[in-house]
């Protein structure tokens, strides 16, 4: 049978393949994808664990990574990439330098999975998925408050 596969199939497959690429690439550098995301959020501004958790909660589904933000933060603090002061986390200079290097690797992954798409195709996919999410009840955090 040569029937078109449903949207859910492609969403799960692409998500799984992206996770695999990120895991393989970032693992070589001693960091998980979630930790990379934490560093990105902290690069913007210091944040509490609750603020970080709110920003990352959709991503805590990978079975091969710690399942709580606390575990990720503890590893980042131990590595010297993040500090904590009065329950607020900040990226360190060492973390900033590491994030710059990791971001180059991540950009290569993004280039790879979008290599046969022109910018308008990629943008259309993202916009379409956002519309579908909104149709299913999702609202960005700033709209939920």
TrEMBL record:
<protein>
    <submittedName>
        <fullName>MarR family transcriptional regulator</fullName>
    </submittedName>
</protein>
<dbReference type="InterPro" id="IPR036390">
    <property type="entry name" value="WH_DNA-bd_sf"/>
</dbReference>
<dbReference type="InterPro" id="IPR036388">
    <property type="entry name" value="WH-like_DNA-bd_sf"/>
</dbReference>
């Amino acid at each position: 049978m040569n029937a078109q596969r449903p949207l859910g199939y492609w969403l799960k497959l692409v998500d799984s393949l992206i996770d695999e690429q990120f895991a393989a690439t970032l693992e070589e550098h001693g960091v998980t994808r979630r930790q990379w995301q934490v560093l990105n959020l902290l690069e913007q501004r210091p944040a509490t664990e609750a603020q970080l958790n709110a920003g990352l909660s959709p991503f805590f589904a990978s079975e091969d990574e710690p399942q709580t933000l606390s575990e990720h933060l503890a590893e980042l603090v131990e590595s010297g990439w993040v500090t904590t002061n009065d329950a607020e986390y900040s990226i360190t200079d060492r973390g900033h330098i590491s994030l710059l290097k990791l971001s180059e690797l991540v950009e290569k992954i993004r280039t790879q999975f979008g290599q046969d798409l022109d910018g308008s195709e990629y943008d259309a996919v993202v916009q379409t998925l956002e519309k579908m999410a909104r149709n299913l009840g999702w609202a960005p955090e700033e709209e939920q408050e």
